[in-house]
Structure to design on (1556 residues):
């Protein structure tokens, strides 16, 4: 904490937004502890940190989407113990949320214009005016976007562009961008950075959140590193190298990870996918995951990587192609079918797709093995509880009781529950979509260790992720998707963050 | 069926369009009845259907608003009859055009007040709209009977009678009688236009869609959620009051038991018209079509000679058919394409 | 649920089976008979349970209850559910039984649904009198204003006279499950088939759900699909106002005859311009009072017999039904036309 | 389970599980306190008519049908749906078994058992149809069951020919009046069925799956739970409960009819919500349903006993619902007396 001091450069310029000693707890877990950050006009201030370090929570508190547990937000000199979103916008705070926070039933033009028209106190919704605002906004950002399509029907990349355009439509004094490039190609990222540069020249204070190191070096005037909800250090980019920044974010010297290269050669592949395709979404997907092998599947948001995972998992089955598990061809028409074939899937969105938040941890763990632990239509409750308890202990899930709802757990522990429920089922292949998103550093290490241990026991693992250090650290091979097709395969010889980044956002 | 629909985009588009589907259903029924009973296809049938659709349509507009905002209101019928009955009780002598306007204004005003009560319960007790309006409708109906009265008023204010007796069109019929379209229909048309304009052309109307589409996202971009909710309940209450007084004017009597138990049928018509029960989507035009299709079904039964005893079962079956078709139509909405045209880089094949 | 500890599937099936067996066979046990002695006729409460509270018809009947209380000094009251729903009425009835009245006067929505409750009341020594339930078995007496068949025949003969004995007509009933409505409709039909072969009923009776809006809508549809129709016969008091409104709107006042049950205040406007031609009814005030008078006689230990005088106009010399000895009917049909409608204020 | 000791331990465990599934204790305690307050109030206000053995016997006799229908609705709510067709199913079951009972076979003991089984079977089939529409065609539950409610009612009307099916065997009609030590057999039967439902939802795989499906349908799908199978089982169970309720109704009424019980649909929802069943799914409390059903019945009987009109009763029921739910929302803040240690529920998702 010693590094966070008011450094001399701040002296004369008055900050636009200051977070003062902000703390925030969720269900007993500290998401932020005593965080103080100042955002100066005309400065791009990067908040760097791993998933789960508290960056997004800080931004949500500044924008009024969350209420802090302690501390205050000072905007243009006035301190506010908490803000409402409307109030924050009125004070010039604008945010590009990580989840975009768009209105799916309205078209892009309206998504961009409605907040501004609301702010201006307009009463009549003029289509012409909305189009004008939207066109100006996308022009300012150098974006191409179909403005009259309902946002719910746009691709992920276009939705991200729409969220960016909405933030730019408003002449704000403070703009926070939370992972704004996850779905964008290089060309789009370049024009976004141009727009950021122009805003900086106009004196807007910009908070830029990213876990991609290169981006931090590309745009930042100042960097603040967060780890586990606390500020670790702050400084200018020239003070850092990739390695030192990465070490600040993770708290470890190296992200390298103990990993065996032992693929169980000679045995049938844990998963073999041949010519998998689904109309309009992806086609010609062929790859294998050996027993004991960890394979990464990467690509931008909206590249089709999730769709391929969900086809394998039976959520949205493929139209064409073949899937075999341990050498046996299986016709996967449903999740049930995939599960009984030996495929387990940890979905992307833990909160809505993975967990039953208000239900007991024990039930979340045992949902996959209810039938196995029943006799004559009745659950063998004791045996089931034993199995859950053992798994909970193995995965070191921190909770007082398995009867507590999952909602009471931190992100890392919740993710362990999700992985544990599938490990209880003893699958042949485990497909994980973003296994460490929203997970604190300690848990991330633990989770990757668990996966490593399972792979050593012969489990085939497919990780869908765009967390580059994680892919580099854990995978034997990384497959890259773009526009619904597999476009590259990086094996251990040429696997690095730079090569993956180049392949996914070409 | 799934593969058939997904391989034929044109079929998918046609079925995916709710309103086209409703029109087809309506035409099929009218066609079927006309074959059996050629007299069905006439101006009088049209007028009958329009007349009987008027009150459900006005109620339906209010329901549409609440559904778009992401709620389900089941109190609208009690609000409607409460407001209309109270209006008749308060000003029994309302006479002529000014009297009619007074009766309408009072009913709408009472409706707005009751709508605000709904809003207070929903927002204050943080209840789901369905549960809250279930409770308030029990209270409204009880209060109507206990404190205002439950007897039928057969001598309603003359202003209302006069309003109903003005004919837009009057056409002689073969049987020596005449058929006519009451000027009351104008109220429905005007209201439909006003509400459609409100929803499309005002910022507050767009808020309604925003709140129903994704409440949290709407909150984050600074849309006043609570104010929008209160506004929706107030307007829906006022519309229900209007529907109630139109019903009284149409029937020439104020009967507190008129609507008992009909709530879900109106909601069904609105949903049939394309409003999403989960919020964020709905339009006045769709509601009109939904209400009319249900009225066509109802009025087809007698000309088709379906025995009275079978009518309920037939209506149930048609209702199930309607909502099933709607659900299927919604399910075949197009997916967002990802697949780019073949790229220059050659996809890697089975390299392992 | 302690037994749940060792409950196998087979045990569960056994339990369900036993349950079914109990349901099926345990019916033999008898209900404990009430042993409380009958209170004297002049003391204790008299409770009248009606189909629905707050409507004009039963408000008028309430006036009869008040008259009875004033004349006799007996504590008599009327209760009824908010909506006309059989289970609400049955529950209200059962909760009235717990108040242990001397006489229960019941006008059931669905006579069959109150039989058990009435049996229970009688087993407790409560005197039970019904109305509009000529087939009732668990009552001390059923008081009807008139013979149902002759009521239906009277409506039919007026309708036939108006239609000159020829042409199509339609019948409405409140609901197809309403016993008295069906009796009237059937008696009317039987008479027409015998005496007026030139007339013809279209289809089965139409259901109005005792709702004037429904009878209005259906009448419009009937007019439209049966252009030649000449008459309407309505059994529910809500039928004539609805039918007449449709006739009035179509301007067919002089071409179509409308007769049926009706309340003067609700039909006056239609009788005045000829869109309704005549209504029939009995005065609910008198019927209500007659029920309680009969209850008073029965509670004092006397029996009703043919010719008994209930001291209420129209019920001064009761007839005993040939089919159900419990049923007694009077001569209380009111026939109302344009000429005499102004004499009635309810 | 060879070991007796182990069996006993398991017994305790299952008992504990069932008890815990019977409700979050805080809201159940509140409900109990309020119910007892109702009893005390009316005992003081109307000792002669309320505080009698007959009255409590009446309460125990009047509650079963409402309690069973509410249990059915609660199960549908547990799975995240709703069933508006329970009353129609109950009546159809009553009519179907009544029609068998009035045949010569029905007079025999075996025939009676057959008739009863047939009634329950019909009800289960109705439930399966509901479940198929909801899970197979993905029609929203509120619309699907609204439609089937009309359909089942209509079929009942056709089967019964429009008149009540009466002259049922006395062995059947007396059943509703049998008492053990003053407690009606139908009340005991209701408790037994409630126990069975509690067993199903806590100690069987399908019960756990119903709860998880209701808690989060998407997560259930991703966990490999077959929404179709589980939904159909749920509605079949709901149908079965409605069927038993229908048999109790026709036993009590000595007849079966289609127009019976229309007020029970909303009452059933009110009971379920009052009990603390989450209408959005994932939580049920069997004890709460029974207590709430009795509480509402007591409230209305008590009000009738003190001579209040039934209109005021419905006001009181609506106000009671709002008040209890408001207490559940604000209770923690306003009434620290009732506060229980519970896991804090963060409104927002965990930090990202």
């Amino acid at each position: 904490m010693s590094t966070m001091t008011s450094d001399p450069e701040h002296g004369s310029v008055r900050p636009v937004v200051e977070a003062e000693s902000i703390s925030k707890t969720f269900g007993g877990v500290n998401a932020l502890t005593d965080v103080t950050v100042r955002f100066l006009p005309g400065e791009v201030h990067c908040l760097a940190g791993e998933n789960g370090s508290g960056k997004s929570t800080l931004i949500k508190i500044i924008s009024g989407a969350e209420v802090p547990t302690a501390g205050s937000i000072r905007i243009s000199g006035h301190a506010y113990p908490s803000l409402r979103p409307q109030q924050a916008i009125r004070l010039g705070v604008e945010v590009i949320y990580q989840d975009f926070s768009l209105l799916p039933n309205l078209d892009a033009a309206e998504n961009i214009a409605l907040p501004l028209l609301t702010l201006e106190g307009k009463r009549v919704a003029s289509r012409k005016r909305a189009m004008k605002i939207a066109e100006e906004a996308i022009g300012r950002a150098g974006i191409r976007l179909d403005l009259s399509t309902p946002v719910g029907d746009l691709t992920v990349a276009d939705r991200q562009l729409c969220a960016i355009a909405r933030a730019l439509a408003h002449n704000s004094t403070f703009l926070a961008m939370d992972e704004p490039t996850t779905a964008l190609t290089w060309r789009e990222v370049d024009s976004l950075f141009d727009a950021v540069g122009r805003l900086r020249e106009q004196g807007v204070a910009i908070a830029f959140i990213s876990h991609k190191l290169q981006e931090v070096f590309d745009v930042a005037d100042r960097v603040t590193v967060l780890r586990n909800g606390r500020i670790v250090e702050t400084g200018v980019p020239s003070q850092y190298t990739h390695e030192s920044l990465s070490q600040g974010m993770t708290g470890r010297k190296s992200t390298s990870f103990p990993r065996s290269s032992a693929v169980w050669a000679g045995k049938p592949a844990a998963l073999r996918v041949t010519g998998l395709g689904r109309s309009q979404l992806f086609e010609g997907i062929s790859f294998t995951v050996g027993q004991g092998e960890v394979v990464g599947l990467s690509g931008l948001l909206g590249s089709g990587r999730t769709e391929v995972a969900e086809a394998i998992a039976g959520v949205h089955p493929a139209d064409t192609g073949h899937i075999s598990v341990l050498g046996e061809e299986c016709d996967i028409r449903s999740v049930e079918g995939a599960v009984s074939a030996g495929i387990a899937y940890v979905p992307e969105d833990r909160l809505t797709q993975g967990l039953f938040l208000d239900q007991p941890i024990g039930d979340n763990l045992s949902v996959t093995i209810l039938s196995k632990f029943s006799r004559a239509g009745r659950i063998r409750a004791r045996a089931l509880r034993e199995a859950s308890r053992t798994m909970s202990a193995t995965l070191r899930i921190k909770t007082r009781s398995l009867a507590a709802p999952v909602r009471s757990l931190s992100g890392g522990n919740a993710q362990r529950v999700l992985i544990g429920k599938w490990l209880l089922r003893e699958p042949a292949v485990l497909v994980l979509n973003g296994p460490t998103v929203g997970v604190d550093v300690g848990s991330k290490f633990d989770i990757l260790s668990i996966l490593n241990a399972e792979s050593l026991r012969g489990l085939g693992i497919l990780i869908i992720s765009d967390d580059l250090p994680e892919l580099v650290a854990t995978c034997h091979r990384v497959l890259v998707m773009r526009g619904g097709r597999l476009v590259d395969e990086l094996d251990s010889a040429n696997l690095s963050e730079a090569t993956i980044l180049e392949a996914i956002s070409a | 069926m799934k593969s058939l629909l997904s391989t034929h985009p044109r079929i998918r588009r046609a079925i995916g369009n709710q309103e086209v589907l409703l029109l087809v259903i309506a035409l099929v029924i009218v066609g079927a009845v006309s074959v059996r009973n050629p007299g069905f296809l006439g101006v009088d049938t049209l007028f009958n259907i329009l007349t009987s659709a008027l009150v459900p349509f006005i109620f339906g507009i209010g329901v549409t608003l609440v559904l778009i905002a992401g709620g389900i209101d089941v109190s609208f019928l009690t609000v409607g009859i409460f407001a209309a009955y109270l209006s008749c009780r308060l000003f029994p002598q309302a006479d002529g055009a000014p009297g009619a306007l007074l009766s309408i204004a009072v009913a709408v005003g009472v409706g707005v007040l009751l709508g605000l009560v709904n809003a207070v319960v929903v927002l204050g007790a943080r209840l789901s709209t369905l549960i809250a309006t279930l409770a308030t409708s029990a209270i409204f109906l009880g209060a109507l009977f206990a404190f205002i009265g439950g007897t039928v008023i057969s001598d309603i204010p003359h202003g209302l009678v006069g309003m109903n007796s003005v004919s837009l069109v009057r056409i002689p019929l073969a049987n020596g009688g005449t058929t006519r379209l009451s000027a009351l229909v104008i109220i429905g048309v005007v209201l439909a236009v006003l509400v459609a304009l409100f929803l499309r052309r005002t910022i507050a109307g767009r808020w309604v869609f925003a709140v129903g589409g994704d409440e949290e996202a709407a909150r984050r971009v600074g849309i006043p959620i609570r104010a929008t909710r209160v506004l929706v309940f107030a307007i829906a209450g006022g519309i229900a009051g209007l529907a109630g007084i139109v019903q009284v004017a149409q029937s020439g009597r104020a009967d507190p038991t008129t609507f008992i138990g009909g709530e879900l049928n109106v909601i069904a018509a609105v949903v049939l018209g394309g409003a999403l029960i989960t919020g964020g989507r709905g339009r006045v035009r769709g509601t009109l079509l939904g209400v009319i299709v249900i009225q066509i079904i109802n009025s087809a039964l007698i000309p088709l000679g379906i025995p009275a005893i079978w009518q309920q079962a037939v209506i149930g079956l048609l209702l199930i058919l309607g909502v099933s078709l709607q659900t299927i139509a919604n399910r075949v909405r197009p997916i967002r394409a990802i697949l780019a045209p073949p790229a220059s880089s050659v996809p890697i094949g089975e390299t392992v | 649920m302690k037994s749940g500890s060792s409950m196998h599937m087979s045990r569960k099936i056994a339990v369900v089976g036993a349950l079914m067996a109990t349901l099926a066979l345990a019916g033999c046990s008898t209900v404990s008979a009430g042993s409380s002695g009958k209170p004297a006729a002049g003391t204790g409460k008299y409770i009248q349970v009606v189909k629905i509270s707050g409507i004009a018809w039963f408000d008028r009947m309430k006036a009869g209850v008040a008259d009875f209380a004033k004349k006799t000094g007996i504590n008599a009251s009327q209760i009824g559910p908010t909506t006309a729903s059989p289970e609400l009425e049955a529950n209200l009835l059962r909760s009235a039984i717990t108040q242990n009245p001397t006489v229960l006067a019941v006008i059931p929505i669905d006579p069959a649904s109150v039989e058990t409750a009435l049996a229970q009341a009688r087993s407790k020594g409560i005197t039970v009198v019904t109305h509009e339930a000529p087939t009732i078995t668990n009552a001390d007496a059923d008081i009807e204003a008139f013979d149902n068949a002759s009521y239906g025949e009277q409506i039919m003969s007026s309708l036939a006279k108006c239609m000159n004995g020829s042409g199509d007509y339609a019948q409405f009933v409140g609901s197809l499950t309403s016993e008295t409505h069906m009796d009237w409709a059937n008696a009317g039909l039987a008479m027409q088939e015998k005496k007026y072969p030139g007339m013809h009923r279209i289809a089965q009776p139409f259901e109005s759900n005792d709702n004037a809006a429904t009878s209005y809508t259906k009448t419009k549809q009937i007019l439209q699909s049966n252009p030649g129709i000449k008459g309407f016969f309505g059994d529910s008091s809500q039928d004539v106002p609805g039918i007449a409104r449709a006739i009035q709107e179509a301007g067919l006042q002089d071409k179509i005859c409308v007769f049926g049950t009706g309340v003067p205040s609700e039909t006056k406007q239609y009788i005045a311009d000829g869109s309704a031609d005549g209504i029939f009814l009995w005065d609910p005030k008198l019927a209500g009072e007659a029920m309680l008078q009969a209850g008073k006689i029965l509670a004092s230990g006397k029996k009703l017999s043919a010719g008994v005088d209930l001291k209420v106009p129209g019920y001064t010399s009761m007839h005993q039904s040939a089919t159900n000895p419990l049923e007694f009917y009077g001569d209380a049909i009111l026939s109302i036309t344009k000429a005499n409608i102004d004499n009635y204020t309810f | 389970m060879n070991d007796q000791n182990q069996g006993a331990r398991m017994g305790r465990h299952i008992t504990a599980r069932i008890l815990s599934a019977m409700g979050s204790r805080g809201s159940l305690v509140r409900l109990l306190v309020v119910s007892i307050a109702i009893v005390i109030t009316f005992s003081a206000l109307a000792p002669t008519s309320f505080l009698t053995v007959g009255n409590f016997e009446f309460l125990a006799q009047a509650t079963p049908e409402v309690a069973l229908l509410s249990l059915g609705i609660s199960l549908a709510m547990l799975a995240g749906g709703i069933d508006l067709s329970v009353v129609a199913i109950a009546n159809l079951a009553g009519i179907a078994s009544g029609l068998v009972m009035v045949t010569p076979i029905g007079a025999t003991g075996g025939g009676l058992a057959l008739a009863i089984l047939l009634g329950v079977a019909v009800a289960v089939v109705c439930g399966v149809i509901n479940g198929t529409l909801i899970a197979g065609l993905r029609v929203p539950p509120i619309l699907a069951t609204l439609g089937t409610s009309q359909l089942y009612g209509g079929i009942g009307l056709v089967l019964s020919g429009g008149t009540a099916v009466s002259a049922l065997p006395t062995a059947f009609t007396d059943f509703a009046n049998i008492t053990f030590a003053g407690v009606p057999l139908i009340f005991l039967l209701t408790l037994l069925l409630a126990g069975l439902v509690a067993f199903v939802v806590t100690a069987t795989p399908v019960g756990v799956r119903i709860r998880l499906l209701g808690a989060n349908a998407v997560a259930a799908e991703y966990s490999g739970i077959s929404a179709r199978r589980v939904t159909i089982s749920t509605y079949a169970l709901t149908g079965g409960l409605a069927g038993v309720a229908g048999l109790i109704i026709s036993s009590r009424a000595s007849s079966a009819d289609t127009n019976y019980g229309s007020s029970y649909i909303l009452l059933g929802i009110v009971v379920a919500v009052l009990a603390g069943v989450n209408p959005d799914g994932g939580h049920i409390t069997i004890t709460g349903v029974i207590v709430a059903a009795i509480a509402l019945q007591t409230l209305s009987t008590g009000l009738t006993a003190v001579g209040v009109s039934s209109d005021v009763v419905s006001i009181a029921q609506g106000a009671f619902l709002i008040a209890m739910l408001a207490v559940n929302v604000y209770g923690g803040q306003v009434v620290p007396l009732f506060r229980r240690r519970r896991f804090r529920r963060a409104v927002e998702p965990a930090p990202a």
Remarks:
- The longest strand of chain A covers residues 29-39.
- The CA atoms of residues 10 and 40 of chain A lie 8 Å apart.
- Chain A has a mean pLDDT of 88.
